[in-house]
Automatic annotation (TrEMBL):
UniProt key word Transmembrane: yes
Domain (GGDEF): residue spans on this chain: 103-232
CDD domains linked to this entry: EAL, GGDEF
Transmembrane spans: 7-25
A molecular-function term among this protein's GO annotations: cyclic-guanylate-specific phosphodiesterase activity
Listed name of the protein: Diguanylate cyclase
Gene3D superfamilies attached to this UniProt entry: 3.30.70.270, EAL domain
InterPro entries: Cyclic-di-GMP_PDE-like (IPR050706), EAL_dom (IPR001633), EAL_sf (IPR035919), GGDEF_dom (IPR000160), Nucleotide_cyclase (IPR029787), Rev_trsase/Diguanyl_cyclase (IPR043128)
Domain EAL stretches: 241-495
Superkingdom of this protein's organism: Bacteria
Keywords of the record: Membrane, Transmembrane, Transmembrane helix
């Protein structure tokens, strides 16, 4: 209402100002220029027509500007700042028009469960804040290109462009989690449901995709707090994934994740020099779940801190009870994910753990991936320095597979690097892999940094590493990951096998 009054007053004032000036000065101009009565009458007629033309153009200009402003206002949702449904549908059709495009599109509809009762609890103003926060959650849930609209009071539609490297299930899961987190700021029990339709299998235009996604949403709303795909096969996959995530959360809380230890040997003497701690999960329904699956899930779902804390706790307790730590075992390696290493809360938690366990910290080596170290070298160096105050060592894992920068050794105080297994396993057939491996070993020795070759699986690989002067090795040829009791039984045999002269 205020905007309407403003535009009306502006239009009236502009007209009044121009008309007043015209009345004051136009007659004087005509009188000054006219030399006779006929010219004076002609001037007055021209003056009148010119006034009509000018005021008409002014009115047209002001009306057009006003209409454009009103159109823009109607194109944007006033509560969330998102596109209106009509603009959204028009833009979606434009994006989907080229039939030969390589981009994969997904249309997602997010709906707040029990919105009416939620509105009654929150009131009008807080409900608007909630809707605005939901819009923000959808917009920032990923860096992928997207087009978003509020298509109903509590319903949002989002068209997402997925590139070849994008994981659709991962994106949908992250979106659901982010929306749920924002909802719980207002009401602890609040949830949302999501319906998903895929460009191509479920439709080729905005209307068809919206219909498919709405059908999927209606199915999701029956169960609430659920993601449903129009393709039922994808829905089953999503449900299995959610069940696996739930089971992993329970397993971590109940300390059902077990640890095993893979031995590392000093190549020159064949002596056991250290252990790498590895997490293992066996579920009564899913069986043995590969680490590549459950660790990735832990990273995606924010369970990494709890998982690492559990691994550290179990490894420390078992090693203390075995009497191997500080006698036979001088180094215990534990992997820290890139997600944790770039999280201030995770680093604080590790820092607190090391303060409370100084004896274990003396033998602990934290492994971070090369890509995590290179993501922000200055921040990485700062974190390493903080944790090294407790006596821990640092290792760069999977060295050589990222964009290796030798300059990072001038900034990051690392004690060890682990050559990625892909180089070790290619040495026998690939001269470049052999040369790279030899070069890495030579450089690290000159820098007085320990080097470990991981993934050793044959005697030939072991012989090559010894000829290069590699100091430490690990891999299936030398010993599989096992429990400490199994390791103690096999220790004498492993020492002989680890010595290249007897292999």
């Amino acid at each position: 209402m205020k905007k309407t009054n403003y535009y009306a007053l502006k239009l009236a004032f502009t007209y009044f100002f121009f008309a007043t000036l015209w009345i004051l000065f136009s007659d004087r101009v005509v009188t000054a220029l006219a030399t006779n009565l006929e010219m004076h009458e002609l001037g007055q007629a021209f003056k009148g027509h010119f006034f009509v033309v000018v005021t008409s153009m002014m009115l047209w200009s002001l009306a057009r500007k006003n209409n454009l402003a009103l159109e823009r206002a109607s194109d944007i949702d006033s509560v969330t700042g998102l596109h209106s449904p009509s603009v959204f549908m028009r833009h979606v059709d434009t994006l989907l028009a080229p039939r030969d495009q390589q981009t994969s599109y997904v249309l997602v509809i997010i709906d707040i469960d029990g919105f009416t009762s939620l509105t009654n609890k929150l009131g009008f103003e807080r409900t608007n804040h909630l809707l605005s926060d939901m819009a923000h959650a959808i917009e920032v849930s990923t860096l992928l290109d997207k087009l978003t609209s509020r298509v109903h009071a509590d319903r949002f539609a989002c068209l997402v462009a997925l590139d070849g490297a994008s994981d659709m299930a991962l994106y949908i899961d992250r979106l659901h989690r982010e929306c749920h987190r924002h909802l719980q700021r207002y009401e602890q029990q609040a949830t949302c449901s999501i319906g998903v339709a895929l460009f191509g299998p479920d439709g080729y235009d905005a209307a068809t995709l919206m219909t498919a996604a709405t059908r999927a949403l209606n199915e999701a709303k029956k169960r609430k707090n659920t993601v449903t795909y129009h393709d039922m096969h994808l829905t089953e996959q999503a449900q299995k994934r959610r069940q696996l995530v739930s089971a992993l959360r329970v397993a971590i809380n109940n300390k059902e994740i077990e640890v095993v230890f893979q031995p590392q040997y000093r190549l020159t003497s064949g002596e056991l020099s250290g252990l790498e701690v590895l997490a293992r999960w066996t579920h009564e329904t899913y069986g043995v779940v590969p680490p590549s699956t459950f660790i990735t899930l832990a990273e995606e779902q924010g369970f990494c801190e709890d998982l690492t804390a559990l691994v550290l706790e179990k490894a420390a307790n078992q090693l203390r009870d075995s009497d191997l730590l500080g006698t036979v075992i001088q180094r215990v390696s534990v992997n820290i994910s890139a997600v944790e290493f770039n999280s201030q809360s995770a680093i604080r938690r590790i820092d607190d753990y090391l303060k409370l366990n100084p004896e274990f910290a003396r033998y602990l080596c934290l492994e971070i991936t090369e890509t995590a170290a290179l993501d922000d070298i200055l921040e990485c160096a700062r974190v390493v320095d903080i944790l090294k105050r407790h006596g821990v060592a640092f290792s760069i894992d999977d060295f050589g597979v990222g964009y290796t920068s030798l300059g990072m050794f001038n900034r990051i105080n690392v004690d060890e690097i682990k050559i990625d297994r892909s180089f070790i396993q290619s040495m026998e057939t690939d001269s470049r892999a052999k040369a790279i491996t030899a070069g890495i070993i030579d450089i690290t020795k000159r820098l007085e940094i320990n080097v470990v070759a991981e993934g050793v699986e044959t005697a030939t690989q072991l012989a090559l590493l010894k000829s290069f002067g590699c100091e430490y090795v690990q891999g299936y040829y030398l010993g599989y990951p096992s429990t400490l009791s199994e390791l103690k039984v096999a220790m004498p045999v492993r020492k002989v096998n680890a010595n290249i002269d007897n292999s």
